[in-house]
Fold:
Amino acid sequence: MSKPDVLVFANSPAHAVMAQLEAQFNCHHVWQHPPAQQNSVIDAVAARIRAVWTVGPIGLDAGMIARLPLLEVVVVNSVGVDRIDLAALAARSIAVTNTPGVLTDDVADLALLLLLAAQRRLPAMDAYVRRGDWADGVRLQPAHGLRGKTAGLFGFGRIGQAIAARLQPLGMQTVYYQPRAIEAGSAGSSTTTRADSLLELAARSDYLILAAPAKAATLHAIDAEVLTALGPQGVLINIARGALVDEAALVAALADGRLGAAALDVFEDEPHVPGPLCALPNTVLTPHIGSLTVETRHAMGQLTLDNLCAHFAGQPLLTPVQL
Ligand code: 8YV
Structure:
């Protein structure tokens, strides 16, 4: 029997996984072609495609779905599916999978790293040494310590809870907000209380950490009012999605001192980062690397591949997205 045709939109650094994918499927690697040629590459094979392999930041829109008449399954090598048109897939009963769980620890580690880096001004301190300011005796102001401070988590799923578990041993209080309270008796519920609104969460927090999915209800949820509530000593940390933040409002709040600092791994229009965010001294910026470790990218890729294989073997999907 011939191998199913798969449209592959993104490479994975997990070479062993890509080798398995190549061996088991007839792969059409869109990402290997320059953007100007990708449409004709897709046109040439669209009528045969039974599966799509993509990642969260690239997604899959309704127009592309409509071009693939035999599409049966979409495997997303990411946990976030905000750029996948789930309604268009549901309308055709096309299955979707993602990679929950396997990236939780690394993403939570990055949130901790960003929080510490912003709080202790790591980039500025590094630059201070390299510039020779230390040897020149340039004066430094002390940073604030973490103990007794409050971290607010906007979004308290797997990743939010893993972040809270890292902050509590540092002597920090944790509070969360999401529309639905987590189940009483679950691991996080005994140590992290729930605020009644995002605004209340921001007002109570020294650090506001974003770990919520991007969807209509969270789009630009972090606006000027929330940033002002977080305050002049407050720090915003985003390891979720850029769409949660009104970036123009963030730049304004950082520039005029209504917000203390921001540490960001994700942006509204990746890979484009607004110039003012790069120019401000009170930002720490990383290029969407929450899950970018050897181990996690391997686990994500393997789970994505295992879902694809399960589909074509007629077995239950391991991690289906509910449509
Ligand atoms: C990216 C992520 O998908 O899983 C997610 O939702 O945002 C990341 O893991 C990763 O950059 C893959 O390209």
Remarks:
- Residues 5-100+295-312 form a domain with the Rossmann fold fold (CATH 3.40.50.720).
- The two ends are 30 Å apart (CA to CA).
